[in-house]
Amino acid sequence: MTKIKVGDIIAVIDIGSNYLRISIAEINVNKTIKILEDAVKPTNIGKDTFNFKRISVQTMHETCNDLKGFAQLLKDYKTKFYKAISTSGIRESENKQYILEQIRLRTGLNVQCINSAEERFYMLKAISYNSNLSALKRILVVNITSGAVEASIYEEGQLKFSEQSKIGSLRLRETLGELETKTMDFPEIMEQFIENKLYSIKSSIENLNFECLIGAGGELKTILKIIDTKNKKGFMKKGYFIEREEFIQLYKNIQNMTNDQIRFTYGISYKIAELLLPSILIFYCFLKITNSKNVQISTVSLREGVLYDLSEELLQIDRRKESENHIISSVWYIGEKYRINKKHVAFVENIALSIFDQTKKLHKLGEKERLYLQIASILHDVGIFIDASNHYIQSYNIIRSQNIIGLSDRDLQLIANIARYHSEQTPKQSHKNYSVLSDKDKMTVSILAAVLRLSEALDISHLQKISELRLIQDKDILYFNLSADEDIILEEWNFINNSDFFEEVLGIKPMI
Q1: So what's the architecture of 8-114 in CATH?
Q2: pLDDT interval class at 323 (50, 70, 90)
């Protein structure tokens, strides 16, 4: 991608479930970004999708008309680069492709439909830029979107856990809306439903002590403003902290109000008013789980995270290692959940990366592919938790079902395939999981699976006998020079039995 210079304009368009938003920013002298303009338009995308699974033609027309205005803003500001994303409202609609194509044809905007893990990655990037996450021992970040709630745990700055539940403020309101007129205690019904949906997350966090609970998204900014206006606390000077009791008191005040009463009492729009109660309830459930005395409200947005990511790429600022550390940390958490043999997995990971790094001239793959190999190495045995005899197939299924922060659906598909072929099977066109890949992706999977297979072979005993690995190429032979203090005859035998696939894929014979 072409580099940009100081003074250039970049932009992000977020096609959300409840609002269409655009942020236009300028690249500053110190390589930071300065927001020049934010614009927002309401949309019924989420209402359509969460109620009917499809976006109506009328909503599509309204969306395209509003986005034409955003496209004109891009021209007015002479925007050099932009990124347009869509989230759960379009992502979960059955006519997603039609909507994205109509947006492209009518507005000229190319929209990328990101998955929930990518959405979480951008949001946490924005929070990381605005909060010192490494300053505290353990932090819980709760992000409420229109379609979901996401909980992430940071320990000393490293992401340890990240999970999502589909109970966002708008989805919750639309899902349970028909019950509102059938009960006198609608908030209690909503709370029970939320706690049921948060069961998996609750089991992971309820016994942990958090030094800080950070809330983002939803209507938390509105909640912050309401409490600040009432109590005149001066949040701007206090770091946006809300005390637990203030939050609970606001919940008690509005729990029996109608949307109109909420709207007029607090001077907010009806669209915000109808989402205020579900947003408060979701966060209230987290307060109960964690027993936090107060909560810090983060006022960052998804758009900011995308802007930071886009500016890093365009300015060629290398923060890749920081992001990869978060990804790998969360991947280890997944592995531990499926009770992997950590010593064996760490050995296979190190050997695989060593082979990758020492054979770059052969495979010519890059850092992204190296990350694929690393993740596949850590998770290659998770399938044993379900079925030891066919664990490689189960590993594929488990990895495909994960929501690993920062990874796209394509990334997960490739990693799952690499893990599947680390053992007995080799890739075949008759395997649906392999046949659906592009030719380029098939080659990537085969190369990395061949590397992983040899790495696994060198620890068949699970005793980590090999202390050092050096590769030396001599014409069409790649010699594996191994250092070990114990007898490795079993590893040598297994290596030979698994070497044919490596030779076929990379065109060079591995030998010990």
Answers
A1: 2-Layer Sandwich (3.30)
A2: confident
